[in-house]
Amino acid sequence: MATYKYIRFFEELGIDDIPLVGGKNASLGEMYQTLVPNGVPVPNGFAITADAYRYVLEANGIWAELKELIGGLTGHVTDLSQRGLKVRQLIYKAELPKDLVDEILAAYADLRQQSGGQISLAVRSSATAEDLPTASFAGQQDTYLNIRGDADFLDACKRCFASLFTDRAIHYRIDQGFDHFSVALSIGVQQMVRSDLASSGVMFSIDTETGFKDVVFITGAFGLGENVVQGSVDPDEFFVHKPTFRKEHRAILKRHLGSKKIKMVYSSGHTKDSVKNVPTVKTERSRFCINDQEALKLAEYAIKIEDHYSKQAGYVKPMDMEWAKDGLTGELFIVQARPETVASQVVGQILKTYELTAKDKQTLVTGRAVGAKIGVGRVRVIESVDKLHEFKPGEVLVSDTTTPDWEPVMKIASAIITNRGGRTCHAAIISRELGIPAVVGCDVATEKLRTGDLVTVSCAEGETGYIYAGELDYKTHETDLSDLAKPKTDVMLNLGNPDLAFQNSFLPVAGVGLARMEFIINESIKVHPQALLYPKRIENDAVRQQVADLIKGYENGQAYFVQKLSEGIGTIGAAFYPRPVVVRMSDFKSNEYASLLAGEYFEQKEENPMIGYRGAARYIDTDYQSSFALECAAIKRVRDTMGLDNVIVMIPFCRRVNEAEQVIEVMSRYGLKRGENGLQVYMMCEIPNNVLLIDQFAEFFDGFSIGSNDLTQLVLGVDRDSAKVASSYDERDEGVKMMIKWAVEGAKRNHKHIGLCGQAPSDYPEMAEFLVDIGIETMSLNPDSVLKTIPLILQKEQAKRQV
Q1: Residue from 157, 160, 425, 757 carrying the catalytic annotation
Q2: What are phi and psi of 11, to 5 degrees?
Q3: Which residue range forms the structural domain that includes residue 359?
Q4: Cα–Cα distance measured from residue 240 to residue 212, given in angstroms and rounded to the nearest whole number
Q5: Catalytic residue among 241, 308, 426, 528
Q6: Structural domain count, the chain
Q7: In terms of pTM, does the model score above 0.70?
Q8: pLDDT digits over 667-700, tens only?
Q9: Is 753 among the catalytic positions?
């Protein structure tokens, strides 16, 4: 290969070359040299150095004029826009010196020769101050795709040089405190991967919403990756759990099917018109853009990349990467990698959470939540860049999508809402950086919301973001975790919603004492399990079609149920891994099962479902066992395939000892054998008979969890669903407390684990103190009461020691 003055091929570059070629190109060189040999495919290419940019300006004698134009900036949006345009025109019209042109074209010829023929190029800007650990300049300069031929290539280079002074780049440097002339522009030139014929996207080695570091988060769509990067599509999403992946377990933790309404493909135009967007077809929108094996291969690459950069840095360094699949060869490539600069930069021990307290809510629009905050303001619908000057500080920005040109107004918004985009789109990235809530991918936000509407934007309720009418009340909670002591009594969580698992994993708890399977079935599966097994028994054609629509894309109804349930449980298990997560098998009552889709065809009406056909009675009933088998299959997949062996199974509402024996036998028949692969099985202790015969029940279980809600109603004879006798329902009653005390003593007598997972300690501090007094091992609390209850437990434990 020839020696060049202004060109460096990737094999000649490393991470220390940022001053010469910018962060993007230095990282590509680093990966090409060190990670390609380690099995991470990176397309070859070269960098045109920052010295070339300076040479162009110097040879054309335009430095002084540039400094005069930029030096006179007033900071006003219109002034910045006018001056930015003049600067870009000045640089674009500058002649490229002949010796530089010769080098650029010679390097292009070298790359063609190495690649074995005609190729198209990705020509990307790489600023010398970008991708720093605390600031991301990504998207500030221009990128040109599918560039072919000498003339278009040179034109793309000139456009990249000029793009150092896009309005968004000028504004960003001002905000970040960078001198405009201490930053130079290098150009990355890389052989294109034919993802126009397949798919591409962005992935992170961290959860971008919560900063949870134990997952790889992959997004993708059909066609070239710019649509995902810029947020023009709602992409597919996959999560992979890093700790179990490192232990050779290969499974998708959870996934989301995006709408992917458009895809970017090659066009026959020149430079700026070399690619175009076309609608995707229905079959593309209804399937994932990559299969599970491809997602797992990308996760492998992400882990290798993060490991490499972490080893260099001396600490865990989450990465932001772009990937592309070649439609001709089927190969997967990494085309960019940079440090993640938002979620990974959250430091300190102050935990801030948001809680919507309003009871009456009118939902206007929903979408994908970005972050976990709540914002309030009046809507301002902006349809195009030329309307940005109408935006006022504190308003809620509503648009079809956003680009870097919108950033001057985004920084003064109270919240951001877009029709299009996923959790890695431009609006999502910038809102995280700014620390404001955003709801993206709403589809109809610009139609449903009107300028002047007062709204509350809530991202504090999981992965779904809600836009509510009016100004709703909410609370913020701040807790300093740095000096929070750990009580001897393990505090655990009550948790049902997998969407909140990563966020709640940062709470100072010993694990999850109660993960409710019913929430996942209700929210994610939505249909009665018997309807999935026996759809012909559904008498209504429209309902039968609804069920068929739900399971489209799955092998059958059973596969749908097992995958959905296992991914919900697995998400909770992964969030707290390796801390224990106790998963209660389904505990719907017959009226609750009947309310599921098609449930009415499989449930009989009971006069008192609270003490009817529920819990263990269902599991051992031959009429229901096929559905219980699906639950067992989901747990087995979580523990064996996903590798989440921290998951403990719990059996609810087990009335008699013979039921306990039967349910253990049925579980074993369906692949969940107690003791095998470390499987522990707990029983809910919630029926007086469980307490009275705890010695006999202890033969079949590894531990007990007192369900104070049901135990209270059965001890007191109170239906807790009846408003007429609600005043008689009280977990603090002496009879209930006596039962709890006997349960704790019985479990300890049999050397079994004993905890409590009811509502009582969350609602009543004195119950938490009582539980400490009687020596309970764990108490499981609702997330919102953990931080206020721990100090009470510590205080009680200290007083107990002093007695």
Answers
A1: 757
A2: -65, -10
A3: 350-478
A4: 12
A5: 426
A6: 4
A7: yes
A8: 999 999 999 999 999 999 999 999 999 999 999 9
A9: no
